[in-house]
Amino acid sequence: MTRATDVSTDAVPLARVVRGDLVESVHSGHLVLLAGGGGDVTLALGDPDATIWARSSLKPLQAVAMVDAGLPLAGGSLALACASHSGEPAHLAGVAAVLQGVGLAPGDLRNTPALPLDAGAALAWQRDGRGAESLSQNCSGKHAAMLATCVAAGWSTADYLEVDHPLQRTVRGTVESLTGVPVEHVTVDGCGAPLFSTTVRGLARAFATIAAAPTAEPGGAAARVAAAMAAHPELVGGTGRDVTRVMRAVPGLVAKDGADGVYAGGLPDGRAFAFKVLDGGDRPRPALLAAALAAAGVDGAAAEELAALGRTPVLGHGRPVGAVVPTFGPAA
Question: Using an 8 Å Cβ cutoff, are 253 and 265 in contact?
Answer without folding.
Answer: yes
